[in-house]
C-alpha cells in the first residue's frame, strides 16, 4: 500500500493527500484483537510509528517526556517533569478520558 501523507491537521480532522476506499468483503463481526491490529495498521499507514515496547503507563510517560522535549527543544529536569505530571498530566482525580485529552491537546 502506498504511503498516505496528511496535508492538513486540526483537533477535529485530518486531510490526506489520497484516499482509497477499501471495500468490506466480510459481513461478520470482528474480534477485538483483529480490530486492534487493523487500527494499528491504519495509524502506521497514516505515518505514525508503532512502538510495541510502550506497554505500561511508566513507559508511556517516558515516551511523552521524550517527545515533548524533542518537539519543544527543551530538557525537563526530573523535578520539573515530576511536578508537570503530578499537577497537570497525571492528576489522580482525572479519569482516562481527561488524561487522553490532555495528551492530545499538548
Describe the model.
The chain has 106 residues and is mostly helical. The protein folds into 2 domains: 6-45, no CATH class; 57-105, Actin, Chain A, domain 4. The chain is 49% helix and 7% strand. The chain has 4 helices and 2 strands. The protein has a two-stranded antiparallel ribbon. The protein is globular and about 55 Å long. The two termini are 31 Å apart.
Core attributes:
single chain, 106 residues, mainly alpha, 2 domains, 4 helices, 2 strands
Write the layout of secondary structure elements.
Elements: E1 6-9, E2 14-16, H1 32-45, H2 57-72, H3 78-89, H4 96-105
Question: What name is given to the CATH topology of the largest domain?
Answer: Actin, Chain A, domain 4
Distance between the termini: 31 Å
Please state the structural category: mainly alpha
Beta strand count: 2
Order of helices and strands: EEHHHH
Helix content: 40-55%
Low-confidence stretches: none
Our count of domains comes out at 2
Under the CATH scheme, which class of the largest domain?
A: Alpha Beta
Q: Could you report the average pLDDT, rounded to the nearest whole number? A: 85
Per the principal axes of the C-alpha atoms, what is the gross shape?
globular
Please indicate the percent range of residues in DSSP E strands (runs of 2 or more). 5-15%
Q: Based on the structure given, which CATH architecture of the largest domain is correct?
A: Alpha-Beta Complex
Helix run count: 4
Main sheet summary: 2 strands, antiparallel
Identify the strand order in the major beta sheet.
1-2
Cα gyration radius (Å) = 17 Å
Amino acid at each position: 500500500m502506498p504511503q498516505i501523507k496528511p496535508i492538513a491537521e486540526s483537533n477535529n480532522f485530518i486531510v490526506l493527500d489520497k484516499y482509497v476506499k477499501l471495500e468490506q468483503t466480510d459481513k461478520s463481526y470482528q474480534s477485538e484483537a483483529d480490530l486492534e491490529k487493523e487500527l494499528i495498521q491504519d495509524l502506521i499507514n497514516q505515518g505514525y510509528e508503532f512502538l510495541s515496547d510502550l506497554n505500561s503507563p511508566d513507559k508511556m510517560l517516558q515516551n511523552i517526556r521524550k517527545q515533548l522535549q524533542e518537539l519543544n527543544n527543551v530538557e525537563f529536569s526530573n523535578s520539573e517533569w515530576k511536578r508537570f505530571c503530578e499537577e497537570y498530566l497525571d492528576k489522580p482525580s482525572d479519569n482516562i478520558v481527561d488524561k487522553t485529552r490532555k495528551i492530545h491537546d499538548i
